[in-house]
Specification:
Number of helices of chain A: 0
Order of helices and strands of chain B: EEEEEEEEEEE
Structural class of chain B: mainly beta
Order of helices and strands of chain A: EEEEEEEEEEE
Helix content of chain A: under 10%
Helix content of chain B: under 10%
Oligomer: heterodimer
Number of strands of chain B: 11
Distance between the termini of chain A: 38 Å
Distance between the termini of chain B: 36 Å
Largest interface: A-B, 22 and 22 residues
Strand content of chain A: over 45%
Number of helices of chain B: 0
Radius of gyration of chain A: 13 Å
Structural class of chain A: mainly beta
Chain lengths: 110, 111
């Protein structure tokens, strides 16, 4: 079983829409969770950490559900510049290694 | 700060040749990792280091690393195979539960 699984999409949404991505993880001992953004042919860049109580950064909201072992990312008022692939990341049982999902592709349409 | 610097950006290698991909960070980060990224496969962890002098292999064979100091974490392909054609990404982070900062990657083709 993969450490992290994501719906690959693609998600095609109009500007201004709200879109949500989910990601499930297999290791119940994982303690660190992140969302990364990756533009085409670029390196992944940290978007936000995911905290147990949930956290918000502008139009982006991240949630963690430990009971069901998933994390989510909500993007409100989508902009054209939000078009990218979004990767979820969880750490290993030991906490040392990080495992990445395969990414969810988002295209925001004018 | 330059962040995480990877060289070269592109390279074509012949099967059986060896090569070292360079990675350096100037942020004094203890944790460094190498990932490879292939279409439809996401990022796969190859090697991991928690500090200078320590390394931990995630996948068997074909790769070697060294971590002689905090800054540098080179990845060596011992005898390249076409299956090692990929984008190689080096990353570093300061603390156990901190996010990674990535370099811009090395696009390697083995023919």
């Amino acid at each position: 079983r993969k450490e992290v699984e994501q719906d690959p999409g693609p998600f095609n949404v109009p500007e201004g829409a709200t879109v949500a991505f989910n990601c499930t993880y297999s290791n119940s001992a994982s303690q660190s969770f992140f969302w990364y953004r990756q533009d085409c042919r670029k390196e992944p860049k940290l978007l936000m950490s995911v905290y147990s109580s949930g956290n918000e950064d502008g139009r982006f909201t991240a949630q963690l559900n430990r009971a069901s072992q998933y994390i989510s990312l909500l993007i409100r008022d989508s902009k054209l510049s939000d078009s990218a692939t979004y990767l979820c990341v969880v750490n290993s049982r030991t906490g040392n290694q990080f495992y990445f999902g395969t990414g969810t592709s988002l295209t925001v349409i004018p | 700060n330059a962040g995480v610097t990877q060289t070269p950006k592109f390279h074509i290698l012949k099967t059986g040749q060896s090569m070292t991909l360079q990675c350096a960070q100037d942020m004094n980060h203890g944790y460094m990792s190498w990932y490879r990224q292939d279409p439809g496969m996401g990022l796969r962890l190859i090697y991991y280091s928690a500090a200078a002098g320590t390394t931990d292999k995630e996948v068997p064979n074909g790769y070697n690393v060294s971590r002689l100091n905090t800054e540098d974490f080179p990845l060596r392909l011992v005898s390249a195979a076409p299956s090692q054609t990929s984008v190689y990404l080096c990353a570093s982070r300061p603390f156990l539960r901190w996010g990674y900062t990535f370099g811009s990657g090395t696009r390697l083709t083995v023919v």
